[in-house]
Structure formats: C-alpha cells, structure tokens
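User: Hi! I'm working on a homework problem where we have to compare a predicted structure to a textbook description. Could you give me the structure for the chain below?
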Amino acid sequence: MSKLKLIWDFRGPDALKIAEHHVKHLNEYIAIQKTDLNITDFQQVHEMHSIAYMVVTQEEMKPIRDALKPHRGEIYND
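Assistant: Happy to help. Predicted structure tokens:
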C-alpha cells in the first residue's frame, strides 16, 4: 500500500506555532473521518518556514486532498 505525505507550508515568524496548531486540526479530521492512517506531525524547516503534514494511503488521497487542500505532497517512506 503506497503512502503519501500531504504537506501544508507556513512561513513567517509564527510559522512553527501555526504548523503545530494545524496538526491539531488534522488530528480532529482523522478522528471524525476514521482514516486508515493516523500519522501527523509538524517540522521546522528553518526559522521562517515550518510544515504540518499528514500521511494518507493512495486510496484516501483524493478525497482528503480535495477536503483539506494541502499545498503539496510527496511519497512517504517509513
């Protein structure tokens, strides 16, 4: 089963706090939708750029992408 990482980019001095908060909303979505995977996290790329991400199966990707509008995606490797 292929896994994809849906990514939301946040930039600026508050990027890390915003990415961390965004993960809470992703986790709420997972609980409501009962998705197959529950991998979410945030990461600081550098001082002015952070990301929040959610890992989904390839089968789940299109409806989740359309509902949550990530900025980009990539193949997820465990």
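For your comparison, note the following. Residues 36 and 77 are 16 Å apart (CA to CA). DSSP finds two helices and four strands in the chain. Good luck with the assignment!
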